[in-house]
Amino acid sequence: MRSMVTAVLAAAVVLATGTAVPAFERELATYQVATVHICDRGVTPEMQAKYDALVAAVDRAQYGFGRSGSPSNFWGPARPELLFEQCQQSGGTGGD
User: Looking at the 3D structure of the chain, how many domains does it have?
Assistant: First the structure.
């Protein structure tokens, strides 16, 4: 389940724009790698740090936003807590 969510998120980012993706592509990939096993490990400080770096990169790129106070609520990186909650509710496991 987690891998599917990650793949859909990455595909949506790529399809949404071809120019903004490179601005935060590295941070997005790093965050995805850090959260692969979130179902098994829970939220770690490393995951939170990668999330914060991704949010900062998205803000610098002025892309989509998705958090309160931003001009759009259609896209934004999911907080690690939300990913963990979704995983636990779905009965999924990380890294599949």
Answer: 1
